[in-house]
Fold this sequence. Notes:
By secondary structure, this protein is α/β, with parallel strands linked by helices. The chain is 36% helix and 15% strand. The model has no long low-confidence stretch (mean pLDDT 96).
Amino acid sequence: MDDSRVEVKKMKPKVLVTHRLLPEAIEYLEEHVDFDIGTQEAFLPKEDLLRKVKDKEGILPLLTASIDKDVMDAAPALKIIANCAVGYDNIDIKYARKKGIMVTNTPGVLTETTADLTWALILAVARQIPQADTFARAKKYKGWELDLFLGKEITGKCLGIIGMGRIGKAVAQRAQAFQMKVIYTDPKVLLKEDRQKYKASCVPLDELLSTADIITVHTTLNPQAFHLISRERLRLMKKDAILVNVSRGPVVDELALAEALENGQIWAAGLDVYEREPEIEENLISRDNVVLLPHIGSATYETRLKMAIMAAKNLVQGLSGQKPDNLVS
Ligand code: DGY
């Protein structure tokens, strides 16, 4: 047989995509890797994850898949974990570093979308939009009344931003349209040009909590940020304040928040994220001074597609020996 005519087919690297992705991202992956999808459901049981990663060089997880020590140990050939999210608290980053496994995320592409949703949530809470919608659909609207669904004014109020990264800044930029005073807290102080651009001043956290009318949380979840908004800190907030969390649930003590809402310690809250997702504290579900969303901060087709493609490209770069664009560790 003439050896030159034997077609040498290069094996594509084996990858686990923990959940289904959008079709364009799947097409991209089909070209470059040999992949399995972990599940078509929202939840991938750990035993399935452990079984499916065994022979994989790469994992592309959604933020609902916990990529811990057990998972990394179950995949001896694992080179890269390409998270399809900007936050990567679902990955044991220290252990990945120890094992020399690359970790990437999807920064930048979801900034504006998440800031938009933050504002949608602020407005929904302040003007009680979901409650008013439910009321109208129930045919309870009997005519215009001076005191029907009285909300909180936004324009000219003080906005407190906890975590002035990309999303915090985009939220601050939108606050200018409402002529708000913006204060923020972040370990990094903004550069002078950014302070001018976002018209924001840095204050200590406790001062922010006791001063702001609307407080919005955009910090990343790390051990220091766990229950940053604690029972004690909730007590510092104004009685007519609004708290919004679009970052990660465990940053806010959810039980303490439910109590604060019940006792009238704060006026209302808007949450897109929860301490034990997908569970939501019963005490929150039963309250009508809280608007609850199912973690949809970045949920537009355009943005979720950009996230999936970015994660897939990071994965392919890492597996083909290049430095991925969005290497976290
Ligand atoms: C992220 O990317 O971390 C978000 O929570 C997804 O919207």
